[in-house]
TrEMBL record:
<comment type="similarity">
    <text>Belongs to the isochorismate synthase family.</text>
</comment>
<dbReference type="Pfam" id="PF00425">
    <property type="entry name" value="Chorismate_bind"/>
</dbReference>
<dbReference type="GO" id="GO:0008909">
    <property type="term" value="F:isochorismate synthase activity"/>
</dbReference>
<dbReference type="InterPro" id="IPR005801">
    <property type="entry name" value="ADC_synthase"/>
</dbReference>
<dbReference type="InterPro" id="IPR015890">
    <property type="entry name" value="Chorismate_C"/>
</dbReference>
<feature type="domain" description="Chorismate-utilising enzyme C-terminal">
    <location>
        <begin position="97"/>
        <end position="343"/>
    </location>
</feature>
<keyword id="KW-0413">Isomerase</keyword>
<protein>
    <recommendedName>
        <fullName>isochorismate synthase</fullName>
        <ecNumber>5.4.4.2</ecNumber>
    </recommendedName>
</protein>
<dbReference type="InterPro" id="IPR004561">
    <property type="entry name" value="IsoChor_synthase"/>
</dbReference>
């Protein structure tokens, strides 16, 4: 299908307030659009039906799905052309900073008295938009972050979500799977090699350990790489790749997902205690941020599911951008605030023409 036809369909769905999801896999220039001609809200528990699943951070047992059939799928190829790389100044808000610093300090107290070892503290930043052109949003997202998993999801019951995620939760093909432990954040400075501190390496190591421990129950072979530095937009992270073979090829995808979700890259460790702290002390509902999403292939046992990071929700001419960071012993509240400010840049760059 050609690009104008697919973008016209995207526009039509958006104008008529009908559900759709547009996405592109990392390092590809192929873009898919799944759409519905009614506003039914579909859910899935077994992830067997082909489509695009969308799950919240909390209470993710029932995932939303936009089913994909031949009739309800369009695809096009695009070029990574020059796009205006606007740098949007971040307008720091003293009140928001105070709140986030308070949250980080509360978590640091919990770490000190050994209730938890790590908690991911997050917040949302609301930005008024003047106008939103859905096709332009799509093309900016696709072209600005070619290495990320890029998506726009819309359903009248959830509102519009979009993002450029650097993190795979699970990639499965038959009984082979891979995942990654992604944590630690530094802002890229031209020409400088990133140096990681002990605190950042420890913060990332906790994610690797939790993934390995939780996966050991359902896999027969498990291989982990050495941590390496990877770029995600204007940031760098530490990443360990984990690959393996699932004990029984028939193990259902949700079983694998729920063995690891939510990982300490988005929640903390131990999981239950970290999640309770998040639900009690974060002053907002994460909804789909730090949930998971991605396409389930019609080929049984094949799916790539991502973590919903570097994302925003757009509703009533306001974009809410979601950002967070891992807190461990030795974290400094002021630095954690700066890290979340730096993470805002990913979606601010996409949204800048609409602000
Ligand atoms: C929770 C987020 O990032 C996670 C992924 C990479 C690095 C992270 C960190 O350095 O804390 C976070 O664990 C976010 O971007 O909102």
């Amino acid at each position: 299908m050609d690009k104008p036809t697919v973008l016209n369909k995207l526009n039509e769905q958006w104008e008529k307030k009908l559900p759709f999801v547009l996405f592109s896999m990392p390092n590809t220039t192929k873009c898919s659009l799944y759409f519905q001609d009614n506003t039914s809200l579909h859910t899935t528990e077994n992830f067997l039906e082909p489509g695009f699943v969308f799950s919240p951070f909390h209470n993710a047992k029932e995932s939303l799905i936009i089913p994909s059939t031949v009739e309800s799928t369009l695809e096009f190829d695009f070029a990574i052309s020059d796009i205006e790389h606007t740098q949007t100044p971040i307008i720091s808000c003293a009140e928001e900073k105070k709140e986030h610093v308070q949250l980080v300090n509360t978590i640091l107290k919990k770490i000190k008295n050994q209730t938890v070892e790590k908690v991911v503290a997050s917040r949302k930043k609301d930005i008024p938009l003047t106008k939103l052109v859905i096709t332009e949003l799509a093309m900016r997202l696709l072209q600005l972050y070619p290495k990320a998993f890029r998506y726009i999801w819309y359903h009248p019951d959830t509102g519009l979500w979009c993002g450029a995620s650097p993190e795979i939760l699970i990639k499965r093909e038959g009984n082979m799977f891979s995942t990654m432990a992604l944590a630690g954040t530094k802002k890229n400075i031209n020409g400088q090699v990133v140096k990681w501190s002990y605190k950042e390496m420890h913060e990332q190591q906790l994610v690797t350990e939790a993934l390995v421990t939780n996966l050991q129950k359902i896999v027969s072979v498990l291989k982990t790489s050495k941590p390496v530095t990877v770029e995600a937009g204007s940031l760098s992270h530490l990443k360990t790749e984990i690959q393996g073979v699932i004990k029984s090829g028939k193990t259902a995808l949700p079983k694998i997902i729920f063995a690891i979700h939510p990982t300490p890259a988005v929640c903390g460790t131990p999981t239950k205690e970290a999640k309770n702290i998040i639900l009690e002390f974060e002053k907002y509902d994460r909804e789909f941020y730090t949930g998971f999403l991605g396409p389930i292939s019609p080929i049984e046992g094949t799916a790539t599911i991502f973590v919903n990071l570097r994302c925003a929700k757009i509703e009533n001419e306001t974009a809410s951008i979601y950002v967070g960071g891992g807190i461990v012993y030795g974290s400094i509240a002021e630095d954690e605030w700066t890290e979340t400010e730096n993470k805002l840049a990913t979606m601010l760059k996409v949204l800048s023409p609409f602000m």
